[in-house]
Amino acid sequence: MVRSSRKRPSDGPPQPVPGVVFSAALYRADEAKVRMGWRDAGFRSACRNGLKVFRVGKRAYVLGADLTAFVVKTGGDA
After folding, report:
1. DSSP letter, residue 51
2. Are 67 and 29 in contact (CB under 8 A)?
3. Can you list the positions of beta strands (E) in the chain?
4. What is the pLDDT of residues 11-59, one digit of tens each?
5. Considering just the CA atoms, what is the radius of gyration of the chain in Å?
6. What is the pTM of this model?
């Protein structure tokens, strides 16, 4: 019997658990991605589909209230 070399979900480092989003908080883009469980492409898609992003210099920020409103508005389909 030959075993498959495919990785099981339990192999490797644990995946980060998405966190809580507080509506009054301001999040850096990378922090918002982790909390929402999005990768770069998902975040870019959300931005194209109406997520408000505030830029200061080279940094991007998102309000927690805007994240919540975006998910409610789109039904989570970015």
Report:
1. -
2. no
3. 26-28, 54-56, 59-63
4. 555 555 578 889 999 999 999 999 998 999 999 999 999 999 999 999 9
5. 16
6. 0.71
- One-letter amino acid at 48 equals R
Give the pLDDT of residue 56: 96
Encoded amino acid at 15, one letter: Q
Rounded CA gap, 62 and 65, in Å?
Answer: 9
Instruction: State yes or no: pLDDT of 6 exceeds 80.
Output: no
Helices 40-48 and 29-36 meet at what angle, rounded to 10?
A: 100
| Bridge partners (DSSP) listed for residue 1 | none
Which two tokens mark 26? 């301001």
Q: Two tokens at 67?
A: 């994240």
